Amino acid sequence: MDALRGLLSPLTSSNVTNPIHDTLKLVVIGGTVETARRVSVSAWNGFIDSFFLTAHFSQEDYPYDWLMHWLSKQPAWGRSREFDITTRTVNRNGLTQSTSGDLEDDEDEESEDLATRRRRKVAIIPSVDTTHTIYYRGHWLRITRTKRFSEYGQCAELKISVVARNNDILKRLVLEAKRDYEKDAEHRVHIFMADTLYGGHWRWNGARQKRPMSSIVLEPGVKDMILADCKDFLRSEDWYAERGIPFRRGYLLHGVPGSGKTSLIHSLAGELGLDIYVISLSSKGMSDNTLANLMGNVPSRCIVLLEDLDAAFTRGVSRDEKSTGAPTGSSSTSSTSTSTAKSKEETDDGSTLSLSGLLNSLDGVAAAEGRLLFATTNHIERLDPALSRPGRMDVWVNFKNATKWQAEGIFKCFFPVKTAPQPTDPKDPASQQNLAVPKRQRPSTITHSLSEEEVCVLAKRFADAMPEGEFSVASLQGYLLKNKTRPRECVEEVDAWVIQERETRAKLKKEKEEREAREKREAEEQAKKEKEEEAKKKAEESSSSESKTEEVKVEAKTVPVQVTPKSETSSQTENVAVPAESTSSSDAESSSSGEDADVEESVTSEEESNGKTATEASEQKAKETWVAVQGHPPDQSV
Ligand SMILES: Nc1ncnc2c1ncn2[C@@H]1O[C@H](COP(=O)(O)OP(=O)(O)OP(=O)(O)O)[C@@H](O)[C@H]1O
């Protein structure tokens, strides 16, 4: 201390008034302060490094979602003093809409009219790069949300630091966040869509409410069979491993549109607690590599859905690896004429999926295991047998138009009774689980005052009026939706609806046939036109090459004729050089070149007698003549 005082004494002593000393004093004090600051910062960093544990969570992975979900429930997170206000989802899962800082509009809740409008929830999320301190199980967590650029674009990251001896506290935090998240996700199915950009990756597309299996009306036993098969598969990993069979199972759901294929998959995902990963094979930029990438990156327990498998074929998936996707084997003229254009378009958008690429991605060595593959198609006849063979598609289910039994079931689903029926007879349709009775049915959703008996009678009448296998369940649903508050009228008017529906269909069918015929005619005309143009082009090309040959011959064989022109006209006429083998087919070009050559000769003779001026005039004349002859039609030039 004395030494420091001694050091500073010349600076602090009052008798020093020299300005140099004052400056020195300031420099020393400033340097001391800065050094002290640096030492303290590095000491703090050293302390942080040796005592703090830091974990990073990237938005691209699930733990980020769990933690964001957990954080959204922490009051400290909601009380942030620097925040972003957003109407977008707080995280990828869409579950954390109610953070403790969310803005609620009470008037919105009360107003009946506003209930029909789309509600937008305003959420408060802490700004990026601000640090929050949250107390958790005896530890202070320092949490920072940052943004960085990844290969898929901008991506958020969470950094959590905690003073602790080991990482147990962080493990506990992640597990708790995961449990919390899964509990909230219980009633939802997460949908991921294939994104073909950047070589193929999965994009979260939303979390949908689970659909109860009871709301799917299929022929008795079908739903139960598929559900039991899926459950059995998911339980049998060891069984598959012992036998060396790849742990994969494929389901091919085929049949008419609007018969419940997609709905069943959604419902199964909810029942089994699995996420759905959707791939559209006909999407832009889909190639063998992209598909392999996508299929190799699905988690082990999930449903992979290949929607409209046949669409890939109409786009032209071919077994040939080199195929660019041009449609093959189509009998229609229009498809032949447009195949080149289509194939070009497909190459342009990078869609080069081949059938072998598709097969490899389904069961090649790199294909993911433990997933349930569901493929849907409206045209099973278009599928290559290799694609639908057992091992790739183990279970086939045919979806048909609604039967009377299904019509009865869907009616009961729309007009449920307050107390669920207690079935006793297994042969009675009503006793099947198939009949839709929403699980989480609120009293308010029942918009009629029918007794159970009356519902059954009306449902029977509705089914009797419905022709067997003529309409899809989706169209029945459309009719019931229009009448969702008037069950009796709905049954009374069903006959009229059937007639009207038939008429509409006939009309649409006729229009479609006419349109197809017109398109076919147009395509044929177009093809004919293209052919004619091509032939014309070829003829022109061959004639021009012939005339070039003639020109060469003319140059070689022209005999110079020295004529003194009397007048321009006579000069022009007499200077026409006729090649020894000239034919009338040598046309305008041959005459013109002949004339050109001959004019040159004339110019030479003129030059000798009349001098340079005459030469220039002649040259000008030659040019004019050339242009004039070029413009003549062939027969006139001869
Ligand atoms: N069997 C069914 N049970 C209950 N609802 C059904 C059934 N079939 C169709 N629907 C209803 O019809 C609509 C269309 O069904 P969905 O999309 O599942 O049909 P799809 O067979 O997948 O049709 P597409 O082949 O055109 O994709 C849905 O709203 C669904 O509720």
From TrEMBL:
Q: How does it sit in the membrane?
A: Single-pass membrane protein
| SMART domains with a match to the protein in the record | AAA, BCS1_N
Subcellular location(s): the record lists: Mitochondrion inner membrane
User: Where do the AAA+ ATPase domain residues begin and end?
Assistant: 247-403
InterPro entries for this protein: AAA+_ATPase, AAA_lid_BCS1, ATPase_AAA_core, ATPase_AAA_CS, BCS1_N, Mitochondrial_chaperone_BCS1, P-loop_NTPase
Give the UniProt family note: Belongs to the AAA ATPase family. BCS1 subfamily.
Q: What is this protein called?
A: P-loop containing nucleoside triphosphate hydrolase protein
